[in-house]
Design goal:
This protein has 16 helices and 14 strands. It is α/β, with parallel strands linked by helices. Helix 2 crosses helix 11, helix 3 (74-84) packs across helix 7 (215-227) and helix 12 packs parallel to helix 15 (411-420).
Length: 436
C-alpha cells in the first residue's frame, strides 16, 4: 500500500477547548458511581452476597460457555486454569510478546516456563508460524492473546494445539464482546480468562473471570476458587470509592484539571493500584489467590446489562479511526476473516511516539500499551524474556500509541485526535510491512 503525504484529516468541530479525554472512565455511568457509593453504606454486603453467582452466570452467557468463575484479577483466573490443567514444574507455556508481566508471572509461580512468541506486525497477535517452531517436548499449553480485542488466528492456534496435544487458553483480557465466525472470543479454546480491571471493556476497578466448557476443568476451578481468600472489606470499599472517583475525575470537562492533580499524587495516591510492586519484579505478592466480591459483582452486572451499547459505540469509534487512517494510507489493525472485533483501545503506529503523545496532550491522554514487551515489568528479564527474541514486539514497544474507544469519545473527538497526530502517522508502518 502506498503511503500518502500528510494531508489534513477532515475538519472536526472545534468547540473542544474545555474537554480532555481520559483513557478510562468512559465505561462506567453516573448510575454506577452512585451504586458504588450506596454499597459503601452497607459494609456487611461488600464482600459476600448473591450477586457473585448471578454475575458469573451472566458472564458465562456473554462468553458463550456454561461455566465461569470470578477472581480478584484476570491473572488469578489464568493461574487457576494452569493448575486445573496440571501445568507445573518443568512445563513450557507458549505466549506472545507483547503482553503484560502478570501473564508470564502466573506461569512462573507454578514452576513452569513462559516461552515468548513474536507477534505479527499487521495484527499484533501471535505469529503462528513462529509458535510452531517454538514447540518442544516440554510444551504443554498455548496462551492465545486477542490483542486490543482483535481476535487472533484461532483456527491456526487450534490446529497447532491438536497437532501437539497442547491446552489452548484464550487470553480475552482485551476481548470481551469480540466475536469470530459468529461465536464469542473465549469460547474456542479449552478455557479462557477475562479482565474487568478499570482500563478494560467493563470496569469493576479490579477483577477477572475464568471460563470453560469442560465440566472437569470447571470442577477443579470451583475447588480452586473455594481455596482462595475472601477480599478484605476495606479493600473492596476502596475499589468502590475508586470507581466512583474515577468516573467523576475522568469526565472530559473536568479531566483537564484533575489529571495534573492525579499525576502529582504519584505513589501517594491512596486508591489501590492494579499491580503489586512485587509483580513488576516477577515475584509473587501476598494475598495473590483471592476471590471476587459482592460489591464488584453488583457493579459488573450493571455494566454487562449495557454491554451491547458499549460494544456498538466502540465499533463506531474504531470505524472512524480506521476510515481516517485509511485515507492517509496508514496501516490499520487487521483481524482474521470472519471476525468482528471490539477494540478496547485503537492501536496506531507512529514515527515519533513522544511527539505524538505531546500533540495529543491538550486533547486526551494517549495510551501507550505496550511500552515494553512485558508491560509494566521493571525489566523484561524479570519475566524471563530474552532481548532480541521478538523483534516486532520490541519495535511496537517504541512506536505504538493507542487511542480511546470508550463511550465518552464522540465522533468529533476521534477526528480531532487523528488530526493532532497526522505528522507522526503519515509514513508510519510496522516492521515487515512487505509481509502484509
Amino acid at each position: 500500500m502506498a503511503v500518502a503525504t500528510a494531508a489534513p484529516v477532515p475538519a472536526a468541530r472545534s468547540r473542544r477547548a474545555a474537554r480532555r479525554l481520559a483513557l478510562l472512565g468512559g465505561t462506567t455511568s453516573t448510575g454506577d458511581a452512585l451504586a458504588a457509593l450506596r454499597l459503601l453504606a452497607r459494609p456487611g454486603r461488600l464482600v459476600a452476597g448473591e450477586a457473585i453467582a448471578r454475575y458469573e452466570r451472566a458472564f458465562a452467557a456473554h462468553a458463550g460457555v456454561p461455566y465461569a468463575f470470578s477472581f480478584s484479577h484476570g491473572r488469578v483466573g489464568l493461574y487457576g486454569l494452569l493448575q486445573a490443567f496440571g501445568i507445573g514444574a518443568g512445563d513450557e507455556v507458549l505466549m506472545q510478546a507483547p503482553t503484560h508481566i502478570v501473564v508470564p508471572n502466573a506461569v512462573h509461580y507454578l514452576g513452569a516456563r513462559a516461552v515468548y512468541v513474536d507477534c505479527q506486525p499487521d495484527t499484533l497477535n501471535m505469529d503462528m508460524e513462529r509458535a510452531a517452531r517454538a514447540v518442544t517436548g516440554r510444551t504443554r499449553a498455548l496462551v492465545l492473546q486477542h490483542t486490543f480485542g482483535a481476535p487472533a488466528d484461532i483456527d491456526g492456534a487450534r490446529a497447532l494445539c491438536r497437532q501437539h496435544g497442547l491446552v489452548l487458553i484464550e487470553d480475552c483480557v482485551h476481548a470481551l464482546g469480540s466475536r469470530y465466525r459468529g461465536r464469542p472470543a473465549g469460547s474456542f479454546g479449552d478455557a479462557a480468562f477475562f479482565s474487568t480491571e478499570e482500563t478494560k471493556t467493563i470496569s469493576t476497578t479490579m477483577g477477572g473471570v475464568a471460563v470453560t466448557a469442560d465440566a472437569t476443568i470447571a470442577g477443579r476451578l470451583a475447588a480452586f476458587q473455594r481455596r482462595c481468600d475472601t477480599p478484605p472489606a476495606g479493600l473492596v470499599a476502596r475499589y468502590a470509592i475508586k470507581l466512583a472517583a474515577y468516573h467523576v475525575l475522568t469526565e472530559p470537562r473536568l479531566h483537564r484539571l484533575t489529571r495534573p492533580l492525579y499525576e502529582m499524587a504519584g505513589r501517594r495516591n491512596p486508591l489501590p493500584g492494579p499491580t503489586a510492586p512485587e509483580e513488576l519484579h516477577g515475584r509473587r505478592p501476598r494475598g495473590y489467590e483471592r476471590r471476587f466480591s459482592h460489591a464488584q459483582a453488583v457493579l459488573g452486572l450493571r455494566q454487562l446489562d449495557r454491554l451491547d451499547a458499549n460494544i456498538a459505540h466502540r465499533r463506531r469509534i474504531a470505524a472512524i479511526y480506521r476510515a481516517e487512517l485509511g485515507r492517509l494510507g496508514v496501516p490499520t489493525p487487521q483481524a482474521p476473516e470472519g471476525s468482528d472485533p471490539v477494540l478496547v483501545r485503537y492501536p496506531v503506529w507512529v514515527t515519533d511516539r513522544a511527539a505524538a503523545v505531546r500533540a495529543l496532550r491538550p486533547l486526551a491522554v494517549a495510551g501507550q500499551w505496550f511500552t515494553s514487551v512485558l508491560e509494566e515489568a521493571v525489566n523484561p528479564q524479570a519475566g524471563g524474556y530474552r532481548a532480541g527474541s521478538c523483534p516486532v514486539a520490541e519495535h511496537a514497544a517504541t512506536a505504538l500509541i493507542n487511542l480511546p474507544t470508550h463511550q465518552r469519545v464522540r465522533a468529533d473527538d476521534a477526528r480531532l485526535l487523528l488530526q493532532a497526530i497526522v505528522p507522526w502517522v503519515a509514513g508510519a508502518a510496522p516492521p515487515g510491512r512487505d509481509r502484509l
